[in-house]
Specification:
The protein is α+β, with helices and mostly antiparallel strands. The protein contains 13 helices and 22 strands. A hairpin with a 4-residue loop joins strand 1 and strand 2. Helix 1 packs antiparallel against helix 5, helix 5 packs across helix 6 and helix 7 packs across helix 9.
Length: 576
């Protein structure tokens, strides 16, 4: 049938919200049925709907840095299976060289058929808590080859026309530390695919396939038009920025990142020439992941009203050097590559700050701190405990940075204390904000978070990924840097030790660890902050009396147990 051109705006809006809502239904299905903490509590996963050609129609409101990797996963499946794709199939992959990102991110892709014809695909990707390898959690920075990181799955058919390949499934599960956990999360992904498939069929039934396909084209064109309209408002020019990761986990660093962004009319080009060559450790990203972080950066800056789909990508072009940390080549390790995405977000936003001053914040915490513990039970079974720590955002042109929130590229959550403690192997002793840590400015950066943990079992391996120790989160327009991150072992003892940002170690019973996230950068000169706002910060415990005077030139005195603003002293302090 010939496609007709729709002129009914109401129909388009209903369809747009229907597919967006369906994508979020996938996410809710995973959230409610997943087994692992890293998925059910920290929400490190994504889900999307694609059309019959593999174009992304809608992505759930989950992890933005997965945005641009779904097309590569789809391309890999279509390249391998093509015309062999059958109703009832389910495909699986995690190989970074064949559509994946890093091994813990496992894609489950289900084709959806309607009236014996291919209608589209439902795609889910979950960061699984462990996929094998030498280190519990499969994301140790010290890995120097992908062969050390876990099981590699090229694009494969896990279910053929409704029949599960149990032998293949058993091989996967045999290679991980917690097979029941992995199976539970994979089945959660498949449940989401089932829900998404039913939803796509319902839409095709409601509109008819020809109109359904026209609506998809219009939706992609709509996203493209919104991105181009935003770029048209930005001044043409070349915008550059540099940033770094402190070190690679093997003692080498700092690791430089460079970008040159060219805005020409409604097109935008990202050139990452000059960024670090691929490193010996597991920080290497895929080209698709680099594109994803770039998309997520601009999407975050422009706001959430632009639908995340293949139309969003159209104004973008890239130069990403091969064999760089942004485009690692096999067999480079990739497990800890998530940190690269968060640094790319800061890099891109730093470059775009002059072009989009009303939209770009100061740097946030630089990415979640992660701690993975590996424990061997007396019967030989394995337990993997993850603790992710989301810090805070940088300040903006109009407000303070948010405290205790996921970085822009992640959309994840801190794991509740009760869940971290649920296995009985660890105890959380303290959890809170660090006063005076947010970058000072007219608008203050969000605060650092800390969490204290004690090991209760006999022994565990501990793998930590953190950063922003030496390269602190930047401020903008005179705002100060956010405070650095820190890892302390056995704090306040005679054998207290400051750990590197990405260590792997074996700890014994009663060992304590404090992790402190970096804080957000400030925006504007601190002396332009209204003194009453500084007083509010002191009252709320976010700034100390000493910090108020030192960082903001605001004099405050505690009188009868209550902080009081001293106007005359403040004027004198700020006039110096």
């Amino acid at each position: 049938m010939t496609k007709r051109i729709l002129r009914d705006a109401a129909t388009f809006e209903v369809f747009r919200n229907a597919v967006s809502g369906l994508a979020d239904e996938l996410a809710i299905t995973i959230l409610r049925t997943a087994h692992s903490q890293i998925v059910a509590s920290s929400m490190d996963f994504s889900a999307a709907l694609c059309d019959a050609s593999g174009r992304t129609i809608a992505q759930a409101n989950t992890c933005p840095v997965h945005l641009g990797s779904i097309p590569d996963a789809m391309d890999a499946v279509l390249r391998v299976f093509g015309d062999e794709i059958t109703d009832g199939d389910v495909y699986i992959l995690n190989d970074p060289s064949q559509g994946g990102m890093h091994l813990p991110d496992i894609f489950i892709i289900a084709p959806i058929f309607y009236e014996a014809a291919l209608l589209g695909y439902v795609v889910t990707v979950v960061n699984h808590s462990d996929v094998g390898g030498w280190s519990a959690g499969s994301m140790a920075s010290q890995s120097t080859s992908i062969f050390a990181e876990g099981i590699q799955i090229p694009p494969s058919r896990l279910i053929a026309a409704g029949t599960v390949n149990e032998t293949f499934y058993d091989i996967i599960l045999r290679n991980v530390r917690e097979p029941s956990m992995l199976r539970g999360d994979l089945e959660s992904q498949m449940a989401a695919c089932h829900a998404g498939g039913a939803g796509l069929i319902e839409l095709a039934t409601r509109y008819g396939v020809p109109e359904y396909e026209v609506l998809i084209d219009e939706l992609l064109d709509y996203s493209e038009a919104l991105v181009r309209a935003a770029l048209e408002d930005a001044p043409d020019g070349v915008y550059r920025f540099e940033d770094q990761i402190d070190e690679d986990g093997l003692g080498s660093g700092p690791i430089p990142f460079k970008v040159e962004i060219t805005i020409t009319g409604t097109d935008i080009h990202f050139d990452y020439t000059g960024s670090s060559p691929q490193v010996a450790s597991a920080l290497n990203a895929t080209e698709s992941f680099t594109r994803s972080a770039s998309y997520a950066s601009l999407q975050g800056a422009l706001g959430s009203n632009i639908p995340a789909n293949s139309g969003f990508y159209r104004p973008f072009t890239f130069t990403i050097p091969e064999a760089s940390i942004l485009n690692g080549q096999r067999p480079s390790a990739r497990g800890a590559r998530g940190l690269v995405a968060y640094r790319l977000v800061d890099l891109v936003l730093g470059a775009l700050a002059p072009a989009l001053p009303d939209h770009v914040p100061a740097a946030g915490d630089g990415g979640p701190g992660s701690i993975a513990l590996g424990i061997t039970e007396p019967d030989g079974s394995q337990v993997v405990i993850w603790d992710f720590m989301m810090g805070s955002w940088g300040a903006t042109r109009s407000g303070d940075g948010n405290d205790g929130i996921s970085p822009l590229g992640a959309n994840m959550a801190n794991i509740p204390v009760e869940e971290v403690e649920s296995s009985g192997h660890v105890r959380i002793d303290a959890y809170g904000f660090v006063p005076d840590s947010g970058g000072a400015g007219q608008f203050r950066g969000g605060l650092s978070l800390f969490r204290d943990m004690t090991l209760l079992c006999d022994e565990a391996t501990m793998q930590i990924r953190s950063d922003r120790r030496t390269s602190q989160p930047y401020g903008l327009h005179g705002g100060h840097q956010g405070a650095p991150s820190l890892n302390l072992l056995d704090r306040d003892t005679d054998h207290q030790k400051i750990l590197d940002t990405k260590p792997f170690l074996v700890i014994e019973q009663d060992t304590t660890h404090r992790h402190i996230t970096a804080a957000g950068g400030g925006y504007g000169h601190p002396y332009d902050r209204e003194p009453r706002l500084v007083l509010d910060d002191v009252l709320e415990g976010k700034v100390t009396v000493e910090g108020a005077l030192r960082d903001y030139g605001v004099a405050i005195e505690v009188q009868k147990g209550k902080p009081v603003l001293l106007d005359a002293e403040t004027k004198r302090a700020r006039s110096k």
